[in-house]
């Protein structure tokens, strides 16, 4: 099997129409214009092709360890879509049928010290929405909250949350597209 690397923009996928069986987006959808990306995905999918998206919703982001314990994390992340945003955008796309939007339970298993390491390294782009001063104060509060909730920073703890939406949609032929 040959694999080629292609660089392009999600909103204007640099491929011909109806060439893929599957389009997958993993934790990236919030970086793009939703309607434009869905239109691009529909354009490159073959009939009966599958679009699968793994993403966090705004509501889910509030229920993660970051949203609950890191001050202002969920408030500063304004790029995420709501569950209703995703449903509405998929409903507007007439190229898709059998649209399923499911919430997937996810367990985070990590030590408190690793969480602090991720925050300090600004693992999530959300951390870039903090000024240096605000980030330092939020990090100190986060560390205090972790210490209050988890006595040993080296003990791995797990939290289960429903934090990831997985919209899936099957492309159907439109007028004049049955032969694609």
* β-sheet strand percentage: 25-35%
Order of helices and strands: EHEHHHHEHHE
Overall tally of structural domains: 1
- What class, by secondary structure content? alpha+beta
| Computed Rg | 19 Å
Q: Can you count the helices?
A: 7
Kindly, what is the distance between the CA atoms of the first and last residues, rounded to a whole number of angstroms?
Answer: 23 Å
What does this protein look like?
The protein has 180 residues and is α+β, with helices and mostly antiparallel strands. It has a single domain, classed as Rossmann fold (3-Layer(aba) Sandwich). The chain has 7 helices and 4 strands; from the N terminus they run βαβααααβααβ. It has a 4-stranded mixed sheet with strand order 1-2-4-3. Helix 6 runs antiparallel to helix 7 (132-149). 24% of the residues are buried.
Provide a concise account of the structure shown.
By secondary structure, this protein is of the alpha+beta class.
């Amino acid at each position: 099997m040959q694999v080629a690397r292609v660089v392009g923009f999600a909103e204007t996928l640099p491929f011909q129409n109806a060439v893929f069986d599957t389009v997958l987006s993993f934790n990236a959808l919030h970086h793009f214009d939703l309607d434009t990306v869905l239109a691009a995905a529909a354009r490159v999918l073959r009939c009966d092709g599958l679009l699968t998206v793994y993403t966090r919703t705004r509501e889910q982001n509030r229920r993660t360890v970051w949203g609950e314990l890191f001050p202002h994390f969920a408030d500063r992340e304004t790029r995420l879509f709501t569950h209703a945003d995703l449903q509405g955008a998929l409903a507007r796309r007439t190229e898709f049928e059998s649209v399923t939007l499911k919430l997937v339970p996810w367990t985070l298993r990590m030590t408190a010290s690793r969480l602090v390491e991720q925050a300090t390294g600004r693992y999530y782009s959300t951390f870039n929405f903090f000024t240096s001063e605000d980030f330092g104060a939020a990090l100190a509060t986060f560390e205090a909250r972790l210490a209050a909730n988890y006595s040993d920073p080296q003990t791995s703890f797990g939290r289960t949350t429903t934090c990831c939406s997985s919209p899936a949609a099957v492309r159907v032929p439109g007028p004049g597209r049955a032969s694609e």
